[in-house]
Specification:
Blueprint (H helix, E strand, L loop, with lengths): L1 H20 L5 E10 L2 E3 L6 E6 L3 E7 L6 E11 L2 E9 L9 E9 L2 E7 L5 E8 L2
Length: 133
């Protein structure tokens, strides 16, 4: 009986650890427009931009028609409270932001995410993303 209780408690702990390890961000997200230095920009209709977040890394893809998805950016991220710290480690268009961590405020509301912050070049951004099911 004691070993049954011990095994049950161990199984419950494992379920709770796995269930609580997700940060709500993991999965696939699609760009849905944004505001850049006060100017609104809609998501493009001729291609899609998607990000896949895993435990502490992300990959960003460009999808156009039937073409194979093109990786254009990847890196790592860390969530601290209401902020997400993103460090780009690969980009098809290298910039001074490579290997630099940029902090954004972010908010998750169901299948929608909003990020906002100031880029190193001074641009003020607010982006909208929707979860891809």
């Amino acid at each position: 009986m004691k070993s049954l209780i011990t095994r049950s408690l161990a199984a419950l702990c494992l379920i709770l650890m796995v269930g609580c390890s997700s940060n709500g961000l993991e999965g696939k997200w699609q760009y849905d427009g944004g505001i850049y230095n006060g100017k609104s920009r809609n998501a493009a209709t001729e291609f899609l931009m998607q990000r896949t977040y895993k435990a502490d890394t992300y990959e960003a893809f460009l999808l156009e028609g039937a073409a194979k998805p093109e990786l254009y950016n990847s890196g790592k991220y860390e969530i601290k409270g209401d902020s997400i710290l993103i460090t780009s480690t690969f980009s098809t268009q290298p910039s001074q932001n490579d290997n630099m961590t940029v902090a954004y405020k972010f908010k998750l509301e169901g299948d929608k995410m909003t990020t906002n912050g100031v880029l190193p070049n001074g641009m003020i951004v607010e982006e909208y993303w929707k979860r891809v099911k």
